[in-house]
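fyi for ur records
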Amino acid sequence: MAELPSFKARPEWVGPVLALFREHAGHYSALEEAIAHWWQNQSARTRPPHVRNSLRAVFGPTLRHLSLITGAGENITVTHQGDRLLTAQAGGEAQFKKQFAAHVTRLDHESWIRVLPYLNTAQTPPTLSQLVEHIRESYPSIPHIDTQKLTKYLNYFAFTGLVQFSGPYVNLRIKQYEAARTGAWTPLPPPARFVHAVERAYDRLSAGNIYVPIPLLRDAVCRELGIWDDEFDTMLLEMPKETHSHIVQLSAPMARARGGLRIGGAYVYYIAVHRKA
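which gave:
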């Protein structure tokens, strides 16, 4: 029966905490302590998290919904899919997210609410409210569907690079979805092709403005080339900032904003690509 899982943990926490499950396999108390300590270091909360609830109420249920752990008590073990995810994590963030994308795509198809196939066939990107109505109509046996629960679900696809939130709309990245579904990963483009894609996307998005938000440029280039967010970030950082054809300028945000790049100790959010005459 299809389900809409209730995720308690953020998607970016899955990899590090899954590694703790493997590190402390067979030692339940040590696992509880390690997860609570790790969580405290990641959060800004003034009170430390409850040791028992960190595992039992937050990370344990989330990783079970994801089919990444099995068993109980001292017998909790990482599943085969969890091992594959940890192996990918050792290869870097981009490899981890590709493997994670393939995993959640399969779960969405086989066990969850098949939101990715719906987004793939929708004539126009739906809003969250429209997605809620679609799920209610398609799965009347699933109770308590609301935008908050659905957003937490969709965040896993956004984290892995499969979907992009554009205002109220949910957009599917078709090339990434097909790669995650089939395993036919798109190789990194040659640097010159990447530069041309950046220039084209900038020209289209700038619309007379000098600077374009990096998240918008990232999404446009990833859609065109079929690469992943972390691959885009790496290639942008390696892209020459001045050549015979262009000058690239990066700028910090005026206020706190998510989705930019950290270069050394600086955080940048806007980009300008000036063509030379």
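DSSP finds twelve helices and nine strands in the chain. thats all i got for now
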